[in-house]
């Protein structure tokens, strides 16, 4: 019986010896684990933890190891050992400067890293030699004194938090509550000063945007203050990590909100500028620019949120790039249209309201969107032209014309006397010279040739009104005056017909029109033109 008991005692001691954690510096994972494990309450052996410190020995090395753990705990940095490399010849291939090094928290605490020296891994000499300065930057000067003056009752714990720490959190909240109202007025005044210094003008939209921008900026300042003072309460690591994660998420969300409001202010300023420009294409760019910048801010903010949950930014960006390429390949037309949109706004071949001819489409430009441009034809039908196609078309922008040209032929009867033709031409010229909507220095009214059923008088005139509706009204006015002149002179317009003329037929009279070509009468009619 004694032999059996002795056997089990030896077996249990062997198992305990096998499970005993030893100092292991063979790889980054083992070194960091050794450092932190031997500073836990249940396995507190600072001498073993100090063996991970390079360049220092004895009590000095132990003090550095303890301070290093406090720094990690104070900032809520919890090591995820599943992500720490476990092979001794680890080398960071993303940066040649970090070869044979491993940085625990490259974005939140890049000053702390382990490196390989010989065959073992230690906390680097650069880390350990600067540990005191790093400790002072995280823990305020009164942190240790605060621990000394707390009475014994203050160290009683409820849910892993001591009583004095609850009191400290309450005081910190009250201080933030008071600072909120003070900083809100100060930040708003600073923003107003900056706004007047940059653009020297203001309106209700900008004032409202600045007021909305003030609050998140104040919250960001208060969160910075909380993150600065929270380590002095020396909360447990698990609680600190949750609080800091929540604070970092809040910071990211508030920064997204701040940048969205900044985008709104910038777009409002650009909208005011666009209203002063002649073209309406700048006005159309306002919503497109706002949506684009808002999308960029939200996308970058989303990537930042992913990194807070342990996803590497490089991995996120690489994944986004691969996904972007896949989406681009799957939607080439959309990408082409987006590029076409950019080219339209850069080249500005037309503006909103311009009358254009693009291929078989003729009409007024109404909107320019991300994907297509809307053109309304004269019959009020709407054409949606993809911007990729529109950017490659030959666009005739009639909206950029200095004048609207109008050309037609006036056909008068073949039996019209030359005197009346000449008088009619002179009268039409005078009508054009006196018409308020035509150029009086560039027009043509000439007897241009002989048609199939009429004598042709060329009318070539330029209207100063560029709008299509105004042009039609100007044509109407000009046509009515020409018809009035023809009626006064007795000039008749020919029908497209064939006339058989019989010169001699007994007891029949010809159908020839009788014209009055008296010179005084003709001159009087022309003089009456206004």
UniProtKB/TrEMBL annotation:
Under the heading SUPFAM superfamilies, the entry gives: Mechanosensitive channel protein MscS (YggB), C-terminal domain, Mechanosensitive channel protein MscS (YggB), transmembrane region, Sm-like ribonucleoproteins
List residues traversing the bilayer: 163-183, 209-227, 239-260, 288-307, 313-330
The molecular function terms in GO held by this entry are:
mechanosensitive monoatomic ion channel activity
Where is it located?
A: Cell membrane
A single cellular component GO annotation = plasma membrane
Q: The Mechanosensitive ion channel MscS domain covers which part of the protein?
A: 333-396
Under the heading Pfam families, the entry gives: MS_channel_2nd, MS_channel_3rd
Mechanosensitive ion channel MscS C-terminal domain boundaries: 408-483
The topology of this chain with respect to the membrane is: Multi-pass membrane protein
Top-level taxon in the UniProt lineage: Bacteria
Q: Which InterPro entries match?
A: LSM_dom_sf, MS_channel_C, MscS_beta-dom_sf, MscS_channel_2nd, MscS_channel_C_sf, MscS_channel_TM-2, YnaI-like
Q: Which first-to-last residue range defines the signal peptide?
A: 1-17
The UniProt keywords, alphabetically, are: Cell membrane, Membrane, Signal, Transmembrane, Transmembrane helix
Q: Could you tell me which PANTHER family the record lists for this protein?
A: LOW CONDUCTANCE MECHANOSENSITIVE CHANNEL YNAI, OW CONDUCTANCE MECHANOSENSITIVE CHANNEL
Q: Please state which protein family the record places this protein in.
A: Belongs to the MscS (TC 1.A.23) family.
Under which name does UniProt file this protein? MscS family membrane protein
């Amino acid at each position: 019986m004694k032999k059996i008991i002795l056997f089990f005692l030896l077996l249990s001691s062997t198992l305990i010896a096998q499970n005993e954690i030893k100092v292991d510096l063979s790889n980054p994972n083992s070194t960091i684990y050794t450092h932190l494990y031997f500073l836990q309450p249940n396995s507190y052996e600072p001498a073993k933890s100090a063996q991970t410190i390079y360049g220092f020995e004895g009590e000095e090395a132990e003090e550095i190891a303890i301070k290093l753990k406090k720094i990690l705990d104070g900032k809520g940095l919890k090591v995820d050992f599943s992500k720490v490399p476990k092979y001794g010849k680890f080398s960071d291939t993303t940066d040649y400067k970090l070869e044979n090094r491993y940085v625990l928290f490259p974005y939140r605490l890049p000053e702390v890293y382990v490196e390989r020296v010989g065959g073992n891994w230690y906390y680097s000499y650069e880390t350990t030699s600067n540990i005191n300065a790093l400790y002072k930057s995280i823990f305020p000067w009164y942190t240790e004194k605060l621990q000394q003056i707390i009475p014994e009752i203050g160290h009683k714990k409820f849910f892993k938090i001591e009583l004095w720490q609850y009191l400290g959190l309450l005081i910190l909240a009250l201080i933030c509550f008071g600072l909120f109202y003070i900083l809100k007025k100060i930040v708003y005044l600073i923003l107003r000063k900056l706004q007047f210094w940059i653009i020297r003008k203001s309106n209700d939209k900008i004032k409202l945007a600045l007021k909305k921008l003030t609050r998140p900026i104040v919250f960001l300042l208060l969160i910075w203050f909380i993150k600065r003072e929270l380590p002095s309460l020396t909360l447990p690591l698990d609680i600190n990590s949750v609080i800091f994660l929540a604070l970092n998420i809040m910071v990211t969300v508030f920064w997204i909100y701040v940048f969205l409001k900044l985008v709104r202010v910038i777009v409002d300023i650009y909208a005011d500028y666009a209203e002063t420009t002649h073209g309406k294409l700048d006005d159309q760019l306002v919503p497109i620019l706002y949506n684009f910048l808002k999308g960029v801010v939200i996308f970058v903010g989303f990537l930042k949120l992913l990194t807070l949950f342990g996803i590497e930014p490089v991995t996120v960006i690489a994944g986004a790039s691969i996904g972007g390429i896949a989406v681009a390949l799957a939607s080439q037309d959309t990408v082409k249209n987006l590029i076409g949109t950019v080219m339209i706004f850069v080249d500005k071949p037309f503006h909103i309201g311009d009358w254009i001819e693009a291929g078989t489409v003729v009409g007024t430009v109404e909107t320019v969107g991300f994907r297509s441009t809307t053109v309304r034809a004269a019959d009020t039908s709407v054409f949606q032209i993809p911007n990729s196609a529109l950017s490659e078309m030959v666009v005739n922008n009639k909206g950029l014309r200095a004048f609207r040209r109008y050309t037609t032929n006036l056909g008068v009867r073949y039996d019209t006397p030359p005197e009346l033709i000449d008088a009619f031409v002179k009268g039409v010229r005078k009508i054009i010279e006196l018409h308020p909507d035509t150029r009086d220095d560039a027009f043509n009214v000439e007897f241009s040739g002989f048609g199939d059923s009429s004598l042709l008088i060329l009318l070539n005139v330029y209207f100063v009104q560029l709008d299509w509706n105004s042009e039609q009204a100007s044509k109407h006015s000009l046509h009515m005056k020409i018809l009035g002149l023809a009626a006064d002179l007795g000039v008749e317009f020919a029908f497209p017909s064939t006339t058989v003329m019989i010169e001699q037929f007994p007891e029949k009279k010809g159908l020839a029109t009788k014209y009055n070509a008296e010179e005084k009468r003709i001159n009087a009619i022309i003089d009456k033109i206004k």
